[in-house]
Amino acid sequence: MEPRNKHVTEDCRGVSEILSRIGDKWTVLVVTRLGQGPLRFNEMRRIIGGISQRMLTLTLRGLERDGLVTRTVFPTIPPRVDYELTELGHSLLEPVRVLGDWARQHETCIKASRQRFDGTDEATSASSPPSPMGPRPSA
Amino acid sequence: MEPRNKHVTEDCRGVSEILSRIGDKWTVLVVTRLGQGPLRFNEMRRIIGGISQRMLTLTLRGLERDGLVTRTVFPTIPPRVDYELTELGHSLLEPVRVLGDWARQHETCIKASRQRFDGTDEATSASSPPSPMGPRPSA
DNA sequence: CTGAATCCGGCTTGATACTG
DNA sequence: CAGTATCAAGCCGGATTCAG
């Protein structure tokens, strides 16, 4: 990546990258669950539900790479692997919680806004096909 | 014990959705810039830099749909469109800032961890202790 | 039980060209 | 200036299969 420059935009680039990192489909779920204590692979898989092995592996791997979780292998039979949040991982828990609070707090509002927005189009022209980006009602 | 435990996953689903929303490539940049005041389309385009018309349009459109920004059209020639954060949009600014602070604060740490992770080619020559610190198979 | 490798479909992104 | 339409490329995520 580019070196960190002076401008705000550059700062936000870094932020954006981090957000992309944790903004993917599963990372937040995994981190949050792990925030309640270490878990084994299939425990997580079962608890989270709907995540494939592949995605769980990739998510965990990425988290480990970023130093957010530790991977502990017990060379037993059957094998056992524990995943646990590092200190850094725990520190992420709080910002995520803040965002989570915001999300839950405004979830209804946002969904309502979406329905309003999506419905505005059809209300004016009923026979129009569903366009991915309907026309704007000029203010 | 904690009834909250059972709901965390569901809660996080919603959070995850919101995160996906703002976790895309440009949303955070746009919102942050808009947090400093209303902007016109090409102003933003120029300020952010590297974003295509298409992506800026789509990002703005999504933000508008979610009720986070307002779009004000001035039917002049040449046309002029102002984008501005709504109250809801401003409320998002804070959580984003929190996450942004975290990101900047741990940016170095994370990058270091990545390099460490990518570069770690464990020899495994040492004894594999029965203690939970087994070697990680290289990718 | 944990996880790697493969194939594949879909969404997201981006470049380009055109319109009011 | 602001926005749309279209097309192509790339990444993401899922199902399946194989291995230790």
Describe this structure in words.
Two copies of one chain form a homodimer. In chain A, a hairpin with a 5-residue loop joins strand 2 (69-74) and strand 3. Chain A is built from five helices and three strands. Chain A is globular, with a radius of gyration of 21 Å. Helix content of chain A is 59%, strand content 10%. The model of chain A is unreliable at 1-6 and 123-139 (pLDDT under 50). Chain A has helices at 8-22, 27-34, 41-48, 53-65, 87-124, and strands at 39-40, 69-74, 80-85. In chain A, strands 1-3-2 form a three-stranded antiparallel beta sheet. By secondary structure, chain A is mainly alpha-helical. Chains A and B meet through helix 1, helix 2, strand 2 and helix 5 of A and helix 1, helix 2, helix 4, strand 2 and helix 5 of B. Chain A binds a DNA duplex (20 and 20 nucleotides) through residues 24-26, 40-42, 52-58, 73, 77-81, 133, 136.
